Amino acid sequence: MSLHNDRDRLRHMIAHAEEAVALIANQSRTDLDNDRMFEPALTRLVEIVGEAAAGLSKETMSAAQSIPWSAVIGMRHKLIHGYFAVDRDILWNVAATDLPVLLPALKTLLAQQDATP
Prior knowledge:
By secondary structure, the protein is mostly helical. Helix content is 76%, strand content 0%.
């Protein structure tokens, strides 16, 4: 039995995606290159989004086919296994562009999960 259910994982995804979006809100792309603590913080937040997604059931993923699950999970794999060559442009674009689009879909999916007994 899993320690975390799909609702927990969706909540984790939402919380960490929101934190990543908030982290870059008052920053610039250049800050990601110049602030030694910024990159690992943002990387970790995006990793957790992907790790939580990887633990979701196939049923939950199927309920939201518009979410690019393989891309979300794949990003986590690239960050973990390719830590030595993180493309900061891609990381920035994920936080600035992809996560804000992903968040409403995750919130809708969570609401559907919460409505299910």
